[in-house]
Amino acid sequence: MKIKKKLFALFSGIGILMVGFGLYAFTAGPSSDQGYLPQPPWENLKVLPKDISKDSLTHLMKNYTASLGVKCNYCHMPSKVDPSKLDFPNDTKIEKEIARGMIKMTNEINENYFKPFFPDPKPKQVQVVNCVLCHRGTANPEKYLSQMGEMYKTYDPNRDNRKEKALEGEGKQ
Ligand code: HEC
Ligand code: HEC
Asked: Which of 24, 72, 105, 106 has a Cα-to-Cα distance from 8 of 20 to 30 A?
């Protein structure tokens, strides 16, 4: 009986120590020398979740480049300090702002027009429509729709495409 009590005291002692250490590890933050640096907060996310992990963000960005057939610098400006690097939080490029709208649009289409028809329990996130579904490896899918008149009788090849033309004028696609 006595031994059992002692053992119990010993184990609960260890338990308390471990909880204490766990809390310490949680609050100690990046200064603790455990060789682990948490992801620094993103500086300028307006549509993606602010706490998105580095892996998930990189994965998304790589999807964008592949879907549009571009490189990171299509949306991100070179850094003023070191032009060999990109200044990711910088918002100067219009393509980045357009991409924000596209991300929102894609999320809304999935959320409002696909998710409701998924059986319960509904998944947290539905990704039926994504960038590549429309873009197919080109930044400006509309440009390649000029032959659409054949397939889609009401498609107007003389639609208002001033933006497309302006971008072309700058030597971009
Ligand atoms: C089609 C446009 C586009 C391309 C291409 C693109 N990005 Fe992005 N990126 C964005 C947008 C838009 C945001 C901001 C999202 C938001 O506001 O939530 C962003 C944000 C980021 C951020 C976070 C910056 C911060 O701290 O706010 C990083 C890092 C980043 N991109 C890296 C990359 C890398 C690396 C590549 C190439 C593999 C890449 N991006 C390609 C559009 C793009
Ligand atoms: C429903 C179809 C559709 C989806 C989904 C879509 N896009 Fe687009 N996107 C277009 C069309 C069409 C244009 C050309 C619009 C124009 O000419 O004004 C375009 C234009 C753009 C442009 C500007 C290119 C330029 O040269 O004007 C960017 C950047 C872009 N999309 C990024 C994205 C990203 C990133 C995603 C995924 C998050 C995405 N798009 C999803 C249809 C789509």
From this structure: 24
Separation of CA 11 and ligand 2 centre (Å): 60
Q: What CA–CA distance (Å, rounded) separates 102 from 10?
A: 59
Q: What's the gap in Å between 74 CA and the centre of ligand 2?
A: 13
- CA dist., res. 67 & res. 133, Å (int): 8
Q: Is 45 left (phi over 0), alpha (psi -120 to 50) or beta?
A: beta
What are the two backbone dihedrals, phi and then psi, of residue 87, each rounded to the nearest 5 degrees? Answer: -95, 85
Distance, CA of 90 to CA of 101 (rounded, Å): 16
This prediction has a pTM of 0.79
pLDDT digits (tens, 9 = 90+) for 87-131: 999 999 999 999 999 999 999 999 999 999 999 999 998 999 999
Rounded CA gap, 106 and 100, in Å? Answer: 10
**Under CATH, which architecture does the 54-139 domain have?**
Orthogonal Bundle (1.10)
User: Structural domain boundaries of the chain?
Assistant: 2-29, 54-139
- What gap in Å lies between CA 44 and CA 149, rounded to an integer? 41
Q: Please, what is the average pLDDT of the chain?
A: 80
Cα Rg, the chain, nearest whole Å: 26
